Amino acid sequence: MTRGAHVDVDDEEMLDTLTIGRRIRQLRRSRGMTVDDLGAAIGRAASQVSVIENGKRELKVAELQRIARVLGASFDALLEPAGLSRRDELEIALERVQRGPIFASLQLPPVAVRKSLSDEAIETILRLHDELERLHRQRASTPEEARIANTELRGQQRKRNNSYEELERAAAELLAAINHRGGPLSQRATSQLADHLGFTLHYVNDLPITTRSITDHRNGRIYLAVRQPGTDPRSALLQALAAHVLRQPAPKDYGDLLRQRVETNYLAGALMIPEASAVEFLKAAKDARELSVEDLRDHFAVTYETAAHRFTTLATAHLGIPVHFLKVNSSGVLSKAYENDAVQFPVDALGSVEGQTVCRWWSARQVFEVEDRLSPYHQYTDKPAGTYWCTSSIQSSANGEFSVSLGTSFAHAKWFRGRDTKRRLTSTCPDPACCREPDPDRSAYWGDHVMPSARLTTSLLAAMPDGSTDGVDKVDVYEFLERHAPR
Q1: pLDDT for the residue 271
Q2: Among 101, 111, 151, 379, which has the highest number of CB atoms less than 10 A from its own CB?
Q3: So what's the pLDDT on residue 358?
Q4: What is the DSSP string of 12-34?
Q5: Is 55 helix (H, G, I), strand (E, B) or coil?
Q6: Which of 84, 47, 52 is nearest to 66 (CA)?
Q7: Residue 3 burial (CB < 10 Å; 0-12/13-18/19+)?
């Protein structure tokens, strides 16, 4: 809603000069006093009183107390924004707009706030400013903003060891409702869960390309794409059910979107790999010093990535093992990461890891060099922060191949199968000489004789659809629902 439609005085702005000035003017007029009267009473010229009432001068506490006594009001009454007239609210909003960076960038003369300036004129100016502000925010909503939000979110996850007790409880309650007694969650049990929550399932061939599923609360339906080869049919459904259970509103910004995505994925993972049976399974494996992502994957019939990610949510809280997790594409670019074992990921100037290139000597990239892609890949790597053991596996998707890696510090490698590997490499990244700068002799030989053509990632230049934070094309979604809703 625009300022022209509704103007709020924020609690944090109660002490600003504009609000106090308008409050003083309102109290003065209600007492039948002129500007001259108030000036004489506080020992100020009338012009100085006008400056105060127009919010152009900051007052000390003693001055405010003296004005309050003259006006027969309490000190708190001057600071209270409630009760201001509609006109006062509009004038305050207009003054704030004109003091802001957007108005200043336009290099326009300020609009004098006079009685002759109508409320409608002020509302028009405020609406125009709101639209300019919206356009600026939209243009600023770049992947940079998403990376900043993701960095903050990853810090929050690290503080809680990536363990969300409230989501574990929610998953346990849902599984108990369908009488699931542990172990893998079957496709049938997943459908029972949807039925328990009041939904029927509909598999379609024309699901909008910007969606993984669509939940129609009006008709109690969940629409899913007809199963694609190589995908887990439970995943999209459980994420849709998780979003419903968590009652997530439309995200306001990237931070909201990422937080909701993390919580939804966590709850879906906790349903596919239930905490109680998973912890029992992992503790037994730790006692035998046979911890393995592959075993967790096979025991609960999930993908390798789901097993590795779920391991990070349970390892520290229940096994006392700090870990790190990476998802890296075949060109070495990191797309997803988590750590609480002090491993140092590559970062940009803002502390973000997404989009950064992983050292070529790390397990996450070395696994692409191995011909045997069926056997687990294990490696020790001496890094600036210490020696780490890591296990990696190559997975395939519609966007190409990527590696999923799970690692821990040398001291905790003793609990894992594969700890006896002889592979050991050294990484000195972020030192450019480690793997980012070519050999000097090669540079001298090739440097002036090669001109490679870069592949520009289209998403680098792509913007979100207008009015969208999550990238979903709502026009497409609503048209889809109208085609499929029961008549």
Answers
A1: 95
A2: 379
A3: 92
A4: GGTTSHHHHHHHHHHHHHHTT--
A5: coil
A6: 52
A7: buried
Which alpha helices (DSSP H) does 358-461 contain, by range? Answer: 363-366, 440-446
- Which residue in this structure is represented by tokens 């006093």? 33
Which pLDDT score, from 0 to 100, does residue 246 have?
A: 92
How many residues does this entry show for the chain? 487
**Residue with tokens 């201001």, as numbered in its chain:** 84
Structure tokens at 364: 């996450």
Q: Write down the pLDDT at residue 258.
A: 84
- Both tokens assigned to 168: 């574990």
Residues of the chain with pLDDT under 70: 1-15, 81-83, 136-144, 228-230, 349-350, 450, 452-476
CATH number of 11-140: 1.10.260.40
Token pair listed for 229: 């080869």
- Choose among 396, 395, 465, 400: nearest CA to 208: 465
> How many angstroms separate the CA atoms of 422 and 419, rounded?
9
What is the C-alpha separation between 362 and 358, in angstroms, rounded? 7
CA distance 142 to 463: 7
Helix (H) or strand (E) holding 192: helix 187-196
- CA distances 43 to 46, 68, 101, 286, 294, Å, are 9, 14, 36, 80, 82
The DSSP call for residue 344 is -
Q: What DSSP character marks residue 399?
A: T
Residue 253, judged by CB atoms within 10 A of its CB (0-12, 13-18, 19+), counts as middle
Cα separation, 193 vs 197, whole angstroms = 6
Tokens (6 digits) for 57: 């001068």
Taking the C-alpha atoms of residue 87 and residue 119, their distance in angstroms, rounded to an integer, is: 7
| C-alpha distance from residue 294 to each of 46, 278, 279, 368, 399 (Å) | 81, 13, 15, 18, 23
Round to whole Å and give the CA distance between 331 and 283.
Answer: 36
Q: Would you state the pLDDT for residue 26? A: 81
User: Rounded to whole angstroms, how far apart are CA atoms 294 and 439?
Assistant: 38
Q: Alpha-carbon torsion 21, 22, 25, 30, what sign?
A: negative
Residue with tokens 């490679």: 452
